[in-house]
Amino acid sequence: MKLHWIVFTAICLLGLCRPTDGLFGTTSLQDYVDNLVDAAKFKFEGMLSVNDSVVGRMWSFFKSKYGRAYSSLDEEKQRLRIFREHLKYVLETNLNKLQTYELELNEYADWSTDEFNSLKKGLIVSTSLRRNFLDNYDDDSEDKDSFRRSLNKLYQRHYRSQRLKRSMINRQHQRKHHDRRGFTDWLIGLLNISTSTPAPANNNNNNNNAQSTSSFDWRSKNVVGSIKNQLNCGCCYAFASASVLESLYAIKTKATSVTDLSPQQITDCSTGNSGCNGGNFAPSVRYVLGQGGKIATLASYPYAGVKQTCKTSGINQINLGNIEYGAIPEGDEKTMAQALVTYGPIFIGLDADSKLFMFYKSGVLTIPSCPTRRQDMDHAMVAVGYGYDSTLKLSYWIIKNSWGEKWGESGYFRLVKDKGNMCGIASMAYYAKLT
């Protein structure tokens, strides 16, 4: 009996050193929350129906599942306040039975929106686009003032990123040194169970003509690489660029499997981009072209989650050939669908400045009044297809993200299609081809 107790204690102590997700792998945070909340009562009483004791149990479960530890009691109080706000938002949003999507609390439930925006995004509007936009308006233009506000918001987000990243690193360090409080929480949780190419015209020269079908998905053709996780580095542009290129290479070579390419090389080495502080598609492609059309495999140049010194030796590079690319006409979803079918997956920018993205679980996102201007795009992803949901009676885009497989629909999400360029889906979109 004494031996059993020693073994149990050892297992518990192991839980102090890392997230205990394995212990809670069959129970998501949202499932745990839903089991504790009376939806009917919450509908009428709101957060008043969820007392402090219940929130405390949710909080303990969250910390245990994701291995959270905080540097002080004050920080934990602040994180609990953020958690409570997100809990309220998700529960209230999911009450709307008419909406076409569902949210869930996840590993970002104790992050502020500023932290999320700085660490999980990273699409930067090009300097030439900013300059051209400003030049097109008079100094007293209301549009120009609005754009300057957008730029100030962008700059502030990136200026904050270094401080936020240092804070996250400190938190990760604290996880390795849990105190007795963490041990107690763990037990409570356990017991509470450029070369520009013209955009394709609508024609019938391609067997996969976008106009002849309501659905198309490059994943079904085994040319889309696996879902990756950019971690706490704002290099979504590098993941999206690498994803597009690896798909195009698989299409070009008619490969039976996809060779994963290295977003880390783009993050470390590409000029015109800013490492973990953001970038875009064109500088990424120009870098690869400058290397003679070669890019390293992910296996030989693995992802580190931070910007490192550019590696030039000891890596295995794939020769993609010449890359031609061009921009989709702004807001033109029909041309974008045609380009996707004709060439392959599309690099896209989105305005993801909404907690709907942060806590998306499933369904077709529709966001009223979501910005569509190019200068508001802040996150890069890849459109890999489109379809039609007969139950919801909505057309949608299939979009590959870089926040890991546990986010959304196994790392993907669906955004409503042909509804006024939702969130700028076609405002900053690039297609490419290998020749």
UniProtKB/TrEMBL annotation:
Cathepsin propeptide inhibitor domain ranges (all copies): 59-116
SMART domains noted in UniProt: Inhibitor_I29, Pept_C1
Domain of life (superkingdom): Eukaryota
GO biological processes: proteolysis
Domain Peptidase C1A papain C-terminal: 212-433
PANTHER family in the cross-refs: CYSTEINE PROTEASE FAMILY C1-RELATED
Name of this protein: Uncharacterized protein
